[in-house]
Amino acid sequence: PVSHAPRFDFIETEADYRLHADLPGITEENLELTVHEGILTVTGIRSEETTEEGTNFLVRERKYGSFERRIRLPKDANAEQVQAKLEAGVLAITIAKKEELKARKIELG
To answer: What global pTM score does this model have?
Structure first.
């Protein structure tokens, strides 16, 4: 079962779309990204920390377990040109826009 879903910032530039998510404690081995039929799916697992015998949690607020997040991409997102990196607990995804759907300025005259 999914225990939580990370929150994303979704940014549009003239050339691409950018998504950023804070994923503290997640390693690349525990993270998977797929794009299928215009939907970006990010799944992963954050393993629970083990505690020493004889210790008890007084407060336990951090989330552990599996997560999944699905984001519908705009029609001009190019699923063939996706780059992703995980650095210092931040997932950064860049998706290029399709050339033929980019707006272009038409000169008069």
So the answer is: 0.79
